[in-house]
Amino acid sequence: MKKLIITVAPTGSIPTKKKNPHVPITPSEIIETGIRCESAGASIIHVHARNLKDESPSTDYGLFEEIYKGLKEKTNLIIQISTGGRAGMTYEARCERLRLRPEMASLTTGSVNFPTSVYENSPDLIKSLASDMMKYGIKPEMEIFDLGMINNAVLLIKKGLAVPPLHFDFVMGLQGAMPATVENLVFLKNTIPCDATWTVAGVGPAQLSMGAHAILMGGHVRVGLEDNIYYKKGQPARNEDLVDRMVRLSHEFGRDVATPDDARDILSLR
Ligand code: ZN
């Protein structure tokens, strides 16, 4: 079995320090977290930026640049910039950060209802983001919240807006999206193209169970406070501890963990 790629998503858009004091918010906190998670065994970091004043999600190019440059200087991690955004946010606000030319960026190929909002990704927006990623040589991670989004991702190849092999992230266990069950995970894995790679982002308690199944099924794993703020019930997690737990599980199952350079080979990044 190929080595396990562990992605850490340390910040996201939602959790605040009030909910978990270990959520990295400032660029230096995010960079320090990246360093610790790389030593723990992560090979990809999924990056969001936050406004320093109130911890709200930020589209500020300068913040993304500071985080990107710091991580590039101090780690060998694959930097994956999120292109997520709330409904109503302009295309420009979501794509400007791609000018940093990170190795990867997230691309959600459809819309979905979050618990209290709409995560809106229109066909035009998806097309524009995909075409920018092609232009800058960025590999998209297709964020799959629902089955139809797989078809949309595959169609991008036919339209000349993505190059195989694709890489997918199945987001499971979020209210409004796909339930985190083994049956669903198997179905998703069997639905993507044969040459594609995949990872799973279980939300909340599903982070541990879906991660364990992905390790056994030959997939890859995403952990971090973006998706889950607890290590176990009532105990706030630290990002590096969530990475470390997946490393330990993988070793117990006899599967080696990828370094960032291993991950570059597995994902055809060079
Ligand atoms: Zn994200």
Account of the protein in words:
With 270 residues, this protein is of the alpha/beta class. It has one domain: TIM Barrel. It is 37% helix and 19% strand. The protein has helices spanning 27-40, 61-74, 91-95, 123-136, 148-158, 182-191, 206-217, 239-252, 260-266; strands spanning 6-8, 44-47, 49-50, 57-58, 78-81, 104-108, 112-113, 118-119, 139-144, 167-172, 197-202, 220-223, 230-232, 235-236. It has an eight-stranded parallel beta barrel, surrounded by eight helices. It has a two-stranded antiparallel sheet with strand order 3-4. Strand 1, helix 1 and strand 2 form a beta-alpha-beta unit. Helix 1 runs parallel beside helix 8 (239-252). The radius of gyration is 17 Å and the shape is globular. The chain starts with 5 loop residues before the first strand and ends with a helix. The model has no long low-confidence stretch (mean pLDDT 96). Bound molecules: zinc ion. The site of zinc ion (ZN) has 7 residues, from loops.
List the helices and strands and how they pair.
Layout: E1 6-8, H1 27-40, E2 44-47, E3 49-50, E4 57-58, H2 61-74, E5 78-81, H3 91-95, E6 104-108, E7 112-113, E8 118-119, H4 123-136, E9 139-144, H5 148-158, E10 167-172, H6 182-191, E11 197-202, H7 206-217, E12 220-223, E13 230-232, E14 235-236, H8 239-252, H9 260-266
Parallel strand pairs: 1-2, 1-12, 2-5, 5-6, 6-9, 9-10, 10-11, 11-12
Antiparallel strand pairs: 3-4, 7-8, 13-14
Helix pairs in contact: 1-2, 1-8
